[in-house]
Amino acid sequence: MGKRMEGKVVLVSGAGSIGSGWGNGKASAVLFAREGGKVFAVDRNLNSARVTQTIIENEGGRCLAYEADVTDPESVDAMVNQCCQEFGQVDVLYNNVGAALAGGIMELDEAAWDDQMNVNLKHVFLVTRKVIAQMLRFKGGSIINIGSTSGLTFTGQQQIAYQTAKAAISRFSQSVALEFASRGIRCNTVIPGQMDTPMVHAYLAGQQTGGDVEALISKRNARIPMGFMGTAWDVANAVVFLASDEARYVTGAEIVVDGGMTLKCTSE
Ligand SMILES: NC(=O)c1ccc[n+]([C@@H]2O[C@H](COP(=O)([O-])OP(=O)(O)OC[C@H]3O[C@@H](n4cnc5c(N)ncnc54)[C@H](O)[C@@H]3O)[C@@H](O)[C@H]2O)c1
Question: Does the reported pTM lie above 0.90?
Answer without folding.
Answer: yes
